[in-house]
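Q: Structure tokens for this one, please.
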Amino acid sequence: MELLTGEYRNTLDEKGRILFPSKLRSSITGNVLVVTKAIDSCLWLYTPEEWKTLSDKIMGSSSPFDPKSKLVVRHLIAPAQEVEFDKSGRLSIPQSLREYAGLSKDCVILGISRYMELWDAAVYQSYNEQNASALADAASSLTDIHF
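A: Here is the predicted structure, written as tokens:
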């Protein structure tokens, strides 16, 4: 799998389908993505291979007796669903996940190296505005990166 990068804008149709950008689609092997709730108000999209790697790590470090572990597992692992691309290159986003992310018509798809995020465009704009002042501080904490 190639690195998934870029910011793309697309619309969600009345049936909850979104046309996936061809650049991202061509970087994905296979016809399936795993879609789940993210920590922020968006959805995470993974190839099945990347999802298995992440979910195995989460489950391997979780305990059914630890309340924090159960919270993470219930939020990330339990709602995850495999979704196939249709012949037109669209993904049908399950209703429960659309509701969680507040997806309406205008959406943003972000390629973030090994996974993707799907945001409602207005929610994403609000997120960026709310976090604009924290960005410089967050970037300055990346002190191990040198050019």
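A few notes: The two ends are 25 Å apart (CA to CA). The helical segments are 22-26, 48-60, 67-77, 95-101, 121-140.
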